[in-house]
Amino acid sequence: MRSTTAAVALGALLATVHAAPKPDVDESYPYTGPAVPVGDWVDPDPNGNGKGFPRLVEAPAVTPSSDNLTNNVNVIALSYVPQGINIHYQTPFGLGEDPSVNWGSSADSLGKKATGYSHTYDRTPPCSMISAVTQCSQFFHEVQITGLHPSTTYYYQIPAANGTTASEVLSFTTAREAGVDGEFTIAVLNDMGYTNAGGTFKQLVQAIDDGAAFAWHGGDISYADDWYSGILPCEDDWPVCYNGTSTELPGGFPIPAEYLVPLPEGEVANQGGPQGGDMSVLYESNWDLWQQWINALSTKIPYMVLPGNHEASCGEFDGPNNELTAYLVDDEANSTAAKSTLTYYSCPPSQRNFTAYQHRFRMPGTETGGVGNMWYSFDYGLAHFIALDGETDFANSPEWPFIRDTKGKHQTPTESETFITDSGPFGDIDNYTDTTTYQQYKWLVKDLAAIDRQKTPWVIAMTHRPMYSSQVSSYQAAVRAAFEELLIENGVDVYLSGHIHWYERLWPLTGTGAIDTPSIIDNNTYYTNPGVSMTHIINGMAGNIESHSTLSTGQSPLNITAVLDFQHYGFSKLKVINSTAMSLSFVLGQDGSVGDEVTLLKKGSGSSSSTSTSSPTACTASSIASSTASGITTGFASTYTPPPYVTTTTEVVTAYTTYCPGNTVFTQGSSTYSVTGVRFHLMSSVSLVQISSDTNNITSPPPSQSLTAPAP
Ligand SMILES: [Fe+2]
What PROSITE patterns does its record include (predicted)? Predict the structure, then answer.
């Protein structure tokens, strides 16, 4: 029998409290772990006493007016809904009335009132067990204001209720209407968490000050499920072991003094933060900590999210002879289990099946035909953004529903047939082995078909999982099988992802994973090629407790990789410049500098159009495999002014694509071209291919070089 964890005793305090419709949580088998799992053997008190793992504190969204607190607004997060905004806010206890905001078009005129609904779940531990009222959230409130003007700033205030303090007068700005011209920038981030993400956070705040319209976080949000980092000793293959054996940090940065502070007696060196595992030793407190940190963003701009694997449950995996299994399954602290027997039922019910994720955000799934926070879409100006669930709800998804545990035989597996991350489905499924029968896929088909490319020429999709990477993994084939053909067929321009904890820009790739060489203008500029290829960015470098991903010893990046950086943390700025140009840039958390940038251009967008069919002129480098005429059609030769960050000098070369795996110089007509660079680089400062000519005005038919790169 499936029952909802939201079925808590709410008492008379709440007015309209909705139980979450999905996901529900299965409790067919009892939970046998500790009442409150705490990732600290020395101090397993949920409140902590600061001895071993001092609890980190982030300010609440609303500064309370009283010392004798009973309730407080700790988190406020904005998100877009069509023609409006959703104001989500969080309190430890109920409001005793429907949540509301007073709002208006100026800060001193809040004459309108909007009301909404509240929801909750049976979090472990409940906020009644947490002594700091300003550091816990268990009741979640949604107030929508719709029918608003686009690109307009409104003001609002959350009134006091049941012990809370009224918020300050805050503001939000509605989305630019679809089809309205004009440059805009958004922040795209993935795999953030709290530890290691300080630089990213700082630059994100700066991005808001610089005018970023919204943030889009593609999964692996708070890393709440790493609550147990403080009780699992370092493994040899972990890149960093804090307060233990490692004296190196990713990026080679100076080691802060706190990293060298010896751990208190009894604590184990681990993958946790500077003081050990002090990201937090509680699953739910990690969520609270992170969300309160992000108030600096989410109270100012819409903070859009999609699911990642770290949102699924209280843990992901474990091996034999491990501490976590003994703790969660047998309620034995500081012990080991002979073998891994973690199942779906090993987590407290409230920490299964994306429960916290579903409550702690409010995305426009319902309003856009999608499902909750799992998949949805929205427009902003010249772009259509598609958020997909790369974790569940497609064939061979990385996390999966019970029907797959039983191989389709029945819906209810035995306890041992389940896995700790079993999740979903969040939509309907007719045949779990066939993605086309999934509600998510059907929705995507419809969503793509409904795009008006005259209004939103740019279409950007994101899931948490990459389709391709130099770090190859089997889930990538499943994601490709589910979505790749559909996205390419419909001319999606960019596919963003995370999951792998580095920045990796790929060459534009066709649906077979081949490099679309004719679409490479130079190292930092691609043509879009609707129906043929997409640009892929793996953007998983925001921070997080698990540190960077790395290549194995002796491993080289694949040839599909144009840029790979596993030394810096940061995020990406996505800038839509106009209907034919956009850019993606990697902003380094350490100083805000740009680590990499690629500009995407649409062909045939200018006042005239021409097709080059000139014979290719081969680079002289012997390592070039072959060359063919590119036949690129482009029309911007006479009118295009490259943005200042496009460094090539080939603006009048209308059909020039070069992919040279080595340094070379060659002559074409009266011009001499130098091509320098390496095929990939680990640092961002090296340009792959730099092209220069001794003239800025090539009047003869331009050289057309398309050098076929080897298949990955
Ligand atoms: Fe991930």
Answer: FN3
